[in-house]
Amino acid sequence: MTQIVVVDYGMGNLRSVSKALEHAGAHEVRVTDDAETIAAAERVVFPGQGAARECMSALHAHELVSVLRESMAEKPFLGACMGMQVLLGHSEENDGVTLLGAFPGEIRHFRHHFPETAQGLKVPHMGWNRVRQTAEHPLWAGVADGEWFYFVHSYYAEPRDPGLVLGVTDYGGEFASVVGRDNVFATQFHPEKSHDAGLRLLGNFIQWDGRA
User: Fold this and answer.
1) N or C: which end of the chain has fewer CB within 10 A?
2) Which residue among the candidates 55, 93, 147, 192 is catalytic per the annotation?
């Protein structure tokens, strides 16, 4: 059984994610778009970048929607960047996109909802920013509250249930930069690009049994 699979649906720098997991201590990492391999893995990492519509189209084209939903229900599951956003129900990107719906909520554009971004803050939100931890979680072990992580995104998550929010970041206003429930933990930032803090979080995921 493969210890960790990185889901390959044609979007994102998957090699950097797999290398970061190996550097963090994973003994076996496989990048794959094969549903059976994903279903059999001990842990699933769902990264990504780009636009919501293209992401969902790629997931349907690779026939990965069902296996991702099943994985989110039963094993440690880590989403990152677009891999976090598509866990919610709907995005206002591309005139509206239906997402996986694991968590109720919306994906919104900074310029539409954060006035400060219209007054000079650059969009996309790109570079290093702090994450304030709003709930205890095993993946925060050894990660300082207020630690810096690396972001690249124009849209942000707005979960309907505040209890899903595990971390927040300020960029013209406070937004949910980490969400999770049960065996699912998802970040807006890129752990694989976040140096020591990102590697520590990935190392925690490798050891995590899926219980909050």
Assistant:
1) N
2) 192
